[in-house]
Amino acid sequence: MQFYRDGYRPGDPDLLPAAAAVAERAGGIPAEVDVLVVGTGPAGTVLGAQLAAFPSIVTAVVERREGPLEVGRADGVACRTVEMFQAFGLAEALLREAYWVNEVRFWGPSSSDRSRITRTGWVEDTPEGLSEFPHVIVNQARMQQFLLDHMARSASRLQPAYGLEMVDLEVGAGERPVTVTLRDAGGAERTVRARYVVGCDGARSAVRRAIGLELHGDAANHAWGVMDVLATTDFPDWRTKNVIQSDGKGSLLMVPREGGNMVRCYVDLGEVPADDAGRVRATTVERLVEITNDILHPYSIDVRSVAWSSVYEVGQRLADRFDDTSGARGPRVFIAGDACHTHSAKAGQGMNVSMQDAFNLGWKLAAVLEGRSDADLLRTYSAERQAVAQDLIDFDRFWSDFIAQPTLDEAHPERGGVTAEQMRAEFARQGRYTAGLATTYGPSAITGSDEHQALAKGFEIGTRFHSARAIRLADARPLHLGHAQRADGRWRILAFGGTAPSGLLDLMSWLGESADSPLLRFTPPGADVDSVIDVHGVFRCGHHDLDPASLPAVLLPRTGPLGLQDWEKAWALDVRHDLFAERGIDPDGAIVVVRPDQYVAHVLPLTARDELTRFFAGFLRVPSGY
User: Are 384 and 360 in contact (CB under 8 A)?
Assistant: First the structure.
């Protein structure tokens, strides 16, 4: 991170000075806001953290609970989510606390005595090379607190208002057309007028109901119990993730938790008859422990404390769209997370996909509200994320059914089931999906065609930017290129040089000097040259082979109130990790355009001047005064 760019100040650099506009605002929820976020679950906290980067945008976050979430619920954090946390500057703290999932081990009935379980194998949890970050486990409440703290430290000083429930919402006309009625715990009501409202208020979303949307899908028919336990045990794999299948006593998924002692147990409670759901929901913790010990035989656990437990039924449901678009009128109200898609916890994707919903929407709202893009940009949210949620529903339906199957008894193949080899193979095959890396956005105004994909094969258009190591030229520091991408709403141009450096140097000169350059065309007069599009150059040579002072000005831009040079735009090859080979960069080089949410938007030749400007013209406004 960079600091001191506005002048020296002592203290914690993560605690930003409050913006002047924020300091002038009265406390509490304003009567008029730009964005009202309803709910502080995974989606709501990510959206708040993203919008907090823009103090000029008046954002309010309300939550019907009396305070932040403290225990329970989701805990699986996919690699992609850790990548997103890196953009907020939170990955280091997250990884320090987290349990790292390194292996998945499999247990099934012993061939000599099917009443006893035995280890049948293991697989690497996350295949090598998928991400620079691991799959980890952290309590949902802690994940949300990281984001809440980030909001509070931002220049916006954004903090949720607790104890406020949304009871009504109407969309009318005017500059702030959405009127929302809020009710506090004492029954008092007040109204807030907003430009946009985002419902992150869970599966029973009041925002969703207010705009006439419903969740559609399969009825729940399979129940699972879940409990976070502190226990002693003779089970040898207590601190690894385990998939355990018994002979007729159900299946068990064990996931160690952060802290070195706690373990989450997902207990298979079987099929749920339509007229028996109430009995299943009443399953006690004591019964869950009993079933767990039956499945673990000949091993056992002695539970000393239960931090949290619940019983739920697997059901996959999805809204038809994620906003209130009506005819020619663009969206004013959005839904995200469980408000628009619900599913089981078996694949560990719910919290992660919810957070990615908000990360997709947040930068788009900021771009529209700050005048960089037209409101049509907001239509891409539902178009992109509804398709992702449908993929999740399909995957979750398959995955829940698959892991609930018994282990095949070779003596009775007619009873069905899966072999230990099939279970291991399926876990390995689904690794990219469960890492959160399978999302691919199709061509649109903000995602280009694949005509030039061969120039950078490892940066697949429509997928998240797959980070790679390089050497920062100015200080010889080895870093991941992806870690230079912050959650600040900016687009990125990463230009990778060819065998000859002239192509990259010529492009950099054009970007910084030509009136046709997207930097000059779409940056407001008087703003920093990198305030809308952040340009980085990656040279195909060692860092000792270049003189930083000789680089084009666009790679050493003078920005901020003091006009200081930014020394962090130019990169060189790390010979220990040749990113040009690892990501299949053509010998002639390539331009890789990256969206503010870290997804690859386009790949173009270094000579594609007109194409580059036309692409940005598809969603960025030419500012007044240009």
Answer: yes
**Separation of alpha carbons 550 and 575, rounded Å:** 22
Determine the Cα–Cα distance for residues 319 and 357; give it in Å rounded to an integer: 14
CA distance 124 to 103: 5
Listed residue (368, 365, 338) closest to 352, CA to CA? 338
Give the relative orientation of helices 350-369 and 42-51 as an angle to the nearest 10 degrees: 30
- Amino acid type, 331: P
From residue 613, alpha-carbon distances to 151, 153, 374, 489 in Å are 34, 36, 17, 19
Q: Under a CB-based contact definition with an 8 Å cutoff, are residues 216 and 196 in contact?
A: no
Write the DSSP assignment of 294-336 as a string of letters: HHHTT--EEEEEEEEEEEEEE--EEES-SB--BTTBPPSEEE-
Q: What are phi and psi of 127, to 5 degrees?
A: -55, 145
Question: Considering only CA atoms, which of 385, 310, 298, 382 is closest in space to residue 345?
Answer: 310
What pLDDT, on a 0 to 100 scale, did the predictor assign at position 222?
A: 72
Phi, psi torsion values for 234, nearest 5 degrees: -100, 5
What letter does residue 375 receive in the DSSP assignment? G
DSSP letter assigned to residue 418: B
Pairing of strands 533-538, 570-572: parallel
pLDDT per 10-residue tile (average), the chain, 626 residues: 91 93 77 97 98 97 95 88 98 97 94 94 91 96 97 96 97 97 96 98 96 86 88 98 91 94 91 69 93 97 96 84 93 97 75 96 98 98 95 81 74 77 79 88 97 98 98 97 97 97 96 97 96 98 91 96 96 96 98 98 98 98 84
Q: Look up the pTM and report it.
A: 0.95
Residue 128: CB partners within 8 Å, gap ≥ 6?
none
CA distances from residue 556 to 281, 521, 568, 592, 609 in whole angstroms, order as listed: 62, 19, 8, 20, 21
Residue ranges in 10-139 assigned as alpha helix (H)? 20-24, 42-51, 79-87, 91-97
Short-list 80, 36, 87, CA closest to 57 = 36
Say whether 13 sits in a helix, a strand or coil: coil
How many CB atoms lie under 10 A from the CB of residue 622?
10
Q: How large is the angle between the packed helices 350-369 and 379-403, nearest 10 degrees?
A: 180
Per-residue pLDDT, 275: 64
Beta-carbon contacts of residue 450 (< 8 Å; ≥ 6 apart): 461, 603
